Amino acid sequence: MKPLTDSTATIAQLKDRVLAFARERDWEQFHAPKNLSMALAAEAGELMEHFLWATPDESRATAANPAKRDKIAEELADVVIYALEFANATKLDVAAAIEAKIAANAKKYPVEKSKGRSVKYTELG
Amino acid sequence: MKPLTDSTATIAQLKDRVLAFARERDWEQFHAPKNLSMALAAEAGELMEHFLWATPDESRATAANPAKRDKIAEELADVVIYALEFANATKLDVAAAIEAKIAANAKKYPVEKSKGRSVKYTELG
Amino acid sequence: MKPLTDSTATIAQLKDRVLAFARERDWEQFHAPKNLSMALAAEAGELMEHFLWATPDESRATAANPAKRDKIAEELADVVIYALEFANATKLDVAAAIEAKIAANAKKYPVEKSKGRSVKYTELG
Amino acid sequence: MKPLTDSTATIAQLKDRVLAFARERDWEQFHAPKNLSMALAAEAGELMEHFLWATPDESRATAANPAKRDKIAEELADVVIYALEFANATKLDVAAAIEAKIAANAKKYPVEKSKGRSVKYTELG
What we know:
4 copies of one chain form a homotetramer. By secondary structure, chain A is an all-alpha fold. The first copy, chain A, is built from 6 helices and no strands. Chains in contact: A-B, A-C, A-D, B-C, B-D, C-D. At the A-B interface, helix 1, helix 2, helix 3, helix 4 and helix 5 of A face helix 1, helix 2, helix 3, helix 4 and helix 5 of B.
């Protein structure tokens, strides 16, 4: 198979890869939404662990540090793999869900009110 | 723009969408890896909340319930959006990271030893 | 010092223990609420990892398994230690907050409506 | 009942309060370790949400802000309530587990090596 990269890999291709991996091991039985949401959250926790005591600025340097970069990429991969497995188990279309969410966020966060501000939409005033 | 779906949307296209949204609002300043990893984990927590008290089997029904499905899709979208923003902020290639992780997992979980078993690779014996 | 146990240890004593540990190492500087909330969530993720693929019933057996029990106790300790450090850093009274929350929950979940049901209060009908 | 405060409330008293609340509603059946670890992690996520885009220093101000303080105390209470329910369900002694963990941490992080440094013990050198 050709190596996958973001510029060419579709979500469907990635979903197929993780599904094939699970099927080969007869693991779909374990892939209930409850279990996958837990695994996803646990991996998100591992991703965070790289940045616990850094300031946000320092965390940019951490992520650029060659000694840590591969491990961080691996945790990110774990998160997205579980997200894709969740989508497989629930037959959700990730790209369509993202597009719908961006459209909803665009209404909640109009550019003129939210530019340069990190406040929640409920506090945009 | 054409609606996005998993069968055609590449990771790069989705990354571009979320990046455009952030840039328009001058939000890249907030998108340190530390902050994005927190946001991702918080959204993963919200996804879990739909399944807290269900058994794994019941959680399949929850995810198929039309009254809950849209909300669940929205939480999944939030998770993947933050994962893509994390990848944007750190210049990581998600598809390549997934492929590398699947290859590593294939070694840790050989089919003949892990078939139908949910035990961790350290306990595969 | 006398060994601590739940029957005699007050929250204040436990807060003092974790504070002394942090002060001795000059770690209070790192104990911003943001950082501690991340550490807490990351440790909660590690606690979950013991139960990812188990059913709820199986998870009771996992927690009773002597081979896993110490590790599970350790993750629970990590969670509570960070919660206490969060309370130290923010000068919150944990017991008072718990009491207030239980009172609020008692209103949201009246016994006659919620008995034996795991549904959210917004769906109690 | 006398109001609870950290200076007098023992862990055992708090465990009893949350147990009484659960028993009155016949909720122990839902309190499998798996479910409680998920609920705990989900609440830890809600606690984090107050600090997503703040710097660590700004997060100290957020936690001191009277407009946010009650909500933050409530999320902290939720976290500790689930930790106590987890301890009830698994018959773990929280104080003893904390004491054991502090002792283990004291060995991993000797004062002279870790003073003023946030690095992980594996990198203390």
